[in-house]
Write a structure and sequence with these properties.
mainly alpha
């Protein structure tokens, strides 16, 4: 292995680098990995909080504004828990708005929050699955437009939602991760294409 501080090669089970004295123990590496995860999560939360703040101060996304391309599943889960589920609806609203901007001109429209809530309520949650399915397909069909290729589409998302519920409910999180990842890539490509 190599020392992360000085870059010199050291034997695999070395606790301290013989060249610079850096702590190379397993505990140190685990602690560093945990710190990196914590800092990444903290940055995701800051970004999500800033997005909510900008929305309430009137800085709405328009076709000439930069689309959010750094959404994360962890911040979605944490902020939804903190706000008793309210953030999850805001998240859906913003994701649909960004996808409608990035995929404009494809002849489709991703339904907004009001339709999502009312139709999901009227259909006992079935419309939410249809909404996720259609969003997954829309992202997949627009990927080529930006030189991207997604292995997942609406069918993948729907299968995770249905059959993933048998895996202790983890399927919904996998489906949301797929949608977030693909939305981030589409929005990033849109931002690059428009020099934003």
């Amino acid at each position: 292995m190599f020392c992360k501080k000085c870059g010199k090669e050291v034997p695999d089970n070395t606790k301290f680098c013989p060249h610079c004295g850096e702590d190379l123990s397993l505990e140190s590496r685990v602690a560093n990995a945990a710190n990196n995860v914590f800092h990444a999560t903290e940055e995701e939360l800051k970004s999500s909080i800033n997005e909510v703040h900008q929305s309430f101060t009137g800085q709405q996304t328009s076709s000439g504004a930069r689309l959010k391309d750094d959404r994360g599943l962890l911040s979605y889960i944490l902020l939804s828990l903190i706000t008793c589920g309210i953030y999850s609806y805001y998240f859906i609203y913003k994701m649909a708005a960004d996808v409608n901007v990035a995929c404009e001109g494809d002849g489709e429209e991703t339904a907004g929050l009001l339709a999502f809530i009312l139709l999901s309520f009227a259909t006992c949650g079935i419309y939410a699955w249809i909404w996720y399915y259609k969003l997954g397909n829309r992202l997949s069909s627009n990927a080529g437009r930006y030189g991207l290729s997604f292995q997942e589409n609406g069918t993948t998302v729907l299968l995770w939602l249905i059959f993933g519920s048998l895996l202790c409910g983890i399927g919904a999180f996998v489906a949301m991760h797929i949608l977030i990842k693909n939305t981030n890539q589409i929005c990033n490509a849109y931002n690059r294409a428009h020099n934003l």
